């Protein structure tokens, strides 16, 4: 078999940018789904200025990531908050648990400090 006809090669070249746009859109949608509000009163918390309390940033990221504008950003110091993070990781929870929960509970052990949800 030789090269595909020129028409097919040109069509392939034309569709490549479209494929990349679709792929990037799907990745963005998956990241947006991982970063979400869990608590039902996040807009109230934001309105009260609670998102801006530095000492509470990690808990507000876990509960109200979208409303508090924490998506893709670190919230507070990157430290493991559970004593059982080694067990958490060995049971596979770093990759199978709710991403915001893994980032809140065991970000160091799960290697999430440099790639926040």
Automatic annotation (TrEMBL):
Residues 78-113 form the ShKT domain. It holds the Pfam family ShK. Keywords: Signal. The keyword Phosphoprotein does not apply. Gene3D superfamilies: 1.10.10.1940. InterPro entries: ShKT_dom. Residues 1-31 form the signal peptide. This is ShKT domain-containing protein. The lineage of its organism: Eukaryota, Metazoa, Ecdysozoa, Nematoda, Chromadorea.
């Amino acid at each position: 078999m030789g090269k595909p006809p020129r028409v097919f090669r040109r069509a392939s070249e034309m569709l490549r940018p479209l494929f990349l746009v679709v792929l990037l859109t799907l990745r963005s949608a998956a990241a947006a789904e991982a970063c979400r509000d869990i608590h039902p009163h996040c807009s109230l918390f934001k309105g009260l200025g609670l998102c801006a309390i530095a000492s509470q940033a990690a808990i507000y990221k876990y509960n109200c990531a979208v409303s508090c504008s924490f998506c893709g950003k670190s919230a507070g110091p990157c430290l493991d908050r559970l004593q059982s993070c080694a067990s958490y990781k060995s049971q596979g929870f770093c990759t199978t648990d709710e991403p915001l929960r893994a980032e809140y509970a065991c970000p160091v052990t799960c290697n999430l400090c440099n790639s926040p949800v």
